[in-house]
Amino acid sequence: MRNGGSDVLFRRKSRGRRVIIAGLDCAAPQLIFERWRDSLPTFRTLMEQGAYGPLTSTIPAITVPAWSSMFSGKDPGTLGFYGFRNRANYTYHQMTIATSGAVKEPRIWDLAGNAGLQTVLVGVPQTYPVSAVNGHLVSDFLTPSTVRNQYTFPESLKGEIEALLGHPYRVDVDNFRTDDKDDLLQRIWDVTEEHFRVVHYLMREKPWDLFAFVEIGVDRMHHGFWKYHDSKHPKYERGNRFEDATLDYYRYLDEQVKHILDVMDDDTVLLVVSDHGAQAMEGGFCINEWLRERGYLVLKEEPEGDGLVPFERVEVDWQKTRAWGAGGYYGRLFINVAGREPSGVVSPDEYEGFREELIGELTSTTGPDGRPLGTVCYKPEDIYRRVHNIPPDVIVYFGNLRWRSVGSFGHGGVYTFENDVGPDDANHAQDGLVMVYDPRTSLRGARLHAQCMDIAPTVLRLMGLPVPEDVQGKVIAL
To answer: DSSP letters along 379-395, please?
Structure first.
């Protein structure tokens, strides 16, 4: 059920609750809810005594924009960014990074702060560059350097954290696309442990009504180690020495959530959430090679060299090019429109018909074995309430996210089984997860199926705050 929120979770409306949001970037519901349920006692307790279920992500299902959508209750079109990198204008190569400055809509800590409530944030995406909050903030993995850049609010918090750790804080696991798996595994553990030391310190030492953190290490673990535990992965090898690495990491996460439960009082509600899920990456689909094969994209000359050549380094004949694409966990397809792009050739009158032609061909794509790939395409205006700034003309899920979009040239064909940006075992999945635990009330394992925009209004209702009328999500009801 999803209604106005009259369920037991919100029966105390005269006074708000404190809320903890434990964000696990990329945490996979099939691992926690099913495969490893009996190996994760804390998560199992949350499921049995709380409520849980899949949390459908944004389209695209990627860290940016999903977390900001979750915390604002607005979709990516309303927010105006469609991934980490977005077109700055209608030229062909100028892009911008969607840092905190790109977020123009209020997020739940802004609304809580306006009501005089205090927040602690740790690692929440799109909180760098740092801005003032009513409380304390440690910025996210988009922070270029914690040595050269200010990554806390207030500024003095930086000194506290470095005194706690004995060295500079690390916001992320550098170079997680590497073949040196022993080194990567150690670094993922080291960084995750540092993050939780900071989380537990701030939870204990600082005042807060809302405490939200996002652990990016889960995402890095999946991209680096998915093939080692997933017997259905094309590159899985039975009995490999990293077979239990991801399970061991999830056990550590389970233990850290137990520490949070141990210090929670009955006035606090815990939400464990992930922004999207994960699944085996079966391969890469070379979107620009595919467009070139069909004559939609024309190069002035063959890419130089024997290796891979990024799209930005090829000479495109824009006077003859009708469409081009970008790589990533999902595909972004752009149309070269006359009067919009500098050398546009597709007239506005032809635009929709040409877009439908491309979508028809993309959804009919097959894999190397000749079987349908299962590609799904989305038009921004069909899936968003509003469309701000410059979205892709078509958002493409190759193989419904089982295949990565590859934008570079030099692969020798449309399909590749090596990532052009470094080794990567996993792609994203549309459903993340949500678990809600209220120590006052046993929710008896109630099943939920929510959308990530539902988190913001749910948290606001729990805290006794009004939900703005323009919030698109719904209060989660049981």
So the answer is: -HHHH-S---S---SEE
Q: Which residues pair with 39 in a beta bridge?
A: none
Cis peptide leading into 154, omega within 30 of 0?
A: yes
Taking only the tens place, the pLDDT of each residue in 40-92 is 999 999 999 999 999 999 999 999 999 999 999 999 999 999 999 999 999 99
pLDDT of 307 above 90: no
Contact yes or no for 121/109 (Cβ under 8 A)? yes
Residue 354 has pLDDT above 50, yes or no: yes
User: What are the structural domains, with CATH classification, of the chain?
Assistant: 8-280+428-462 (3.40.720.10), 283-423 (no CATH)
Closest CA to 278 of 115, 446, 103, 63: 63
Compute the distance between CA of residue 457 and CA of residue 463 in angstroms, rounded to an integer: 10
Q: Which helix (H) or strand (E) holds 42?
A: helix 41-49
Helices 245-263 and 41-49 sit at what angle, rounded to 10 degrees? 60
- Spatial neighbors of 420 by CB under 8 A, at least 6 apart, are 284, 308, 310, 327, 406, 407, 408, 411
The 3-state DSSP composition of the chain as helix, strand, coil percent (nearest 5) reads 35, 20, 45
The percent of residues above 70 in pLDDT, for the chain, comes to: 96
Q: Which of 396, 394, 334 is nearest to 365 (CA)?
A: 396
Tokens 């004559």 appear where? Answer: 295
Residue 71's closest CA among 478, 473, 391, 424?
A: 473
pTM of the model as a whole: 0.94
- Sheet with 323-326, strands from edge to edge, namely 323-326, 331-335, 394-397, 376-378
Integer Cα distance of 59 and 67 in angstroms = 12
Distance, in Å, from the CA atom of 55 to the CA atom of 270, rounded to the nearest integer, reads: 15
Measured from the Cβ of residue 239, the count of other Cβ atoms closer than 10 Å reads 5
Beta carbons of 31 and 47 less than 8 angstroms apart: no
Is 24's pLDDT higher than 70? Answer: yes
Q: What whole-number distance in Å separates Cα of residue 58 and Cα of residue 383? A: 10
